[in-house]
Amino acid sequence: MKRVLLRFLLGAFWIPLAAAAAPPTSQEIARAIEELGAPQFDTRQAASELLWGAGEAVAAALGRAAASPDPEVRTRAEELLQKLRLGIRPNTPADAIEVIDQFRQAKSSNERQQALRGLQSKEQWHTIVALLRSESNPAEREAFVSPGHASNWRPTASFTPLG
């Protein structure tokens, strides 16, 4: 009897979790891309959320959608691609997104450096790398990672340089 109950519980909870973690199929991705331009806001929003949740697996499809003649599809695809490039996922904490926005809207190098330190304290390493790679000014990018600024970067418990 205990075995039957255990199998039931595993089946009842394991299968839905496994199904929820399954990535969308190519047909679901294509439909979601189309629905980015749907007349109903809720449909467009659900499509955006499905694509965002799929992550890098939909980057190529979003790249094609970003060239769409439909301004709604183009705008939503570009926004999703930007989130993916910055490492922003549906589970990214809101306070980390706020710091990312501070970096992107900063008027000075010092403000941007402060935002990077904030991301470091939140252990948002993928986002830090993405922001540094996206820096169009090579001198500014170099300044952020130069040894002279090394005192601004402090190892955390989960990231300690090897040596």
SSE order: HHHHHHHHH
Question: How much beta, percentage-wise?
Answer: under 5%
Note the gap between the termini: 56 Å
Number of domains: 2
CATH class of the largest domain: Mainly Alpha
Index terms:
163 residues; single chain; Leucine-rich Repeat Variant; 2 domains; elongated; 9 helices; mainly alpha
Structural account:
The protein has nine helices and no strands. It folds into two domains: 19-85, Leucine-rich Repeat Variant; 94-150, no CATH class. Helices cover 67% and strands 0% of the residues. Helix 2 (26-35) packs across helix 3 (41-54) and helix 4 (59-65) runs antiparallel to helix 5. The protein is mainly α. It has helices at residues 2-21, 26-35, 41-54, 59-65, 71-85, 94-105, 109-121, 125-134, 138-145. Mean pLDDT is 80; it is low at 12-19 and 155-163.
SSE map:
Blueprint: H1 2-21, H2 26-35, H3 41-54, H4 59-65, H5 71-85, H6 94-105, H7 109-121, H8 125-134, H9 138-145
Helix pairs in contact: 2-3, 4-5, 6-7
Question: What's the short version?
Answer:
The chain is an all-alpha fold. The chain folds into 2 domains: 19-85, Alpha Horseshoe (Leucine-rich Repeat Variant); 94-150, no CATH class.
